[in-house]
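Here is one chain, start to finish.
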Amino acid sequence: MAAAAWSIDRSRAVGITRRLAEICGPPFARLGGAADEVAGEPARWVAVPGTEQAAAEVLRLAAAHDLTVVPRGAGTKIDWGAAPDHVDIMLDTGRLAGISHRPPDAGVAEIGAGTPLRAVQATLERSGLRLALDAPSPGATVGGVLAADESGPLRHRHGSPCEQLVGVRYLAASGELISAGGGAPGLELARLLCGSQGGLGVLVSATLRVQPVPASRAWVTRAVWSPLEVDGLVREVLAARLDPAAVELDLPARANRVRPPLHPDTPEALARARHPSMFRRTVVPAGAGSLTVLLEGGPADVAERADGLCGLLGDEATIDHSAPQWWRRYPFGPGETALRIEVPITDLHAAVYALRDAAGGPVPVRGSAGQGVLHAALPGTLPAERVASIVAGVRAVLLARRGRCVVVAAPPAVRESVDLWGELTSLPRLRAAKEYLDPHQRLAPGRLPGGL
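Its structure:
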């Protein structure tokens, strides 16, 4: 394992600082500040290389001085997962940005790791194209999305970012620039880097599939009142073969256990419901959750499928041509404990009930009901032992259902005392990959499961 930079003598530290400035340029190399932390672990230096070659030089410098390196994009998920053992150099990829010029019919685009996802989408949209990536983290870079394998609602139809990857260019711990992709072995290696949080290599660019922007989109929403009700509705939606682009669920903690009357009979309520401004608006009754289905395609096709879906979901279903306010947003905020639950959709209701039982009441839950991937939030004020008890209770229920519960982010006390990942069958494969790609433990040591 690389030695901590804190033990470096002053003259050597000055030399490293000077060399980083030579590699990146004086404005782009500095000592770490209060905001330069990785899950609470401070960085000694911050380097912002402007080219792949400069980034490679930073890694070679780190190898020569036995220093650790942790990549950072926009920092939107820098507090996810475990804290690294220590951070000597934070390698900021913000200047490794840009989109390669490819013919519109090529079907792929090569994108610099430091390019903000929203900038990529805005650029591609000028040619009528898009990435089928809609990660919820605002301001996230393409490299950050891939490093966390962060998915949004579109995962339902198009798969995770990892599954849309065609190839990558990355830097090994030694500073060697490697291209992976183009065939089964190369693609397997490229996809292995997804979700590795920079612990297996430093992404410098990625080649991803692109697709035409849909001509029309519609969100069909129905109020829901219980996880069991959601289970039946999701089964009906998927069985109808309406080719949804996403099937998302929002269950706020405030959801009532008793359904209120479906048709308020007060004159004021009836007048409001009939007003032209309310025509097919997505208005969810107070206290209810929402099941929302996204349909994409040609205008006539989307309109036909939306009407068919409304017929399936009943009179409560509404159609809107803009997303609900909660769409592409996590239910958790800074300082809270964020959980990710993955379970077969047939057991989705069991997972939500297990979480409620373990927590002693409703917990805000949101995510892809059509994929069986949900996020939940626990208050940041809960003691670490209480969070551990809740997580253990949920995992016990999910164990027999081939599901898992992961702690995505948490306050320091929780992160240090709770098993973040639980049982992980892929750990031996991950350990072998770490030993092969980073034998000296220089890249984000301790960030991966098992302390890798």
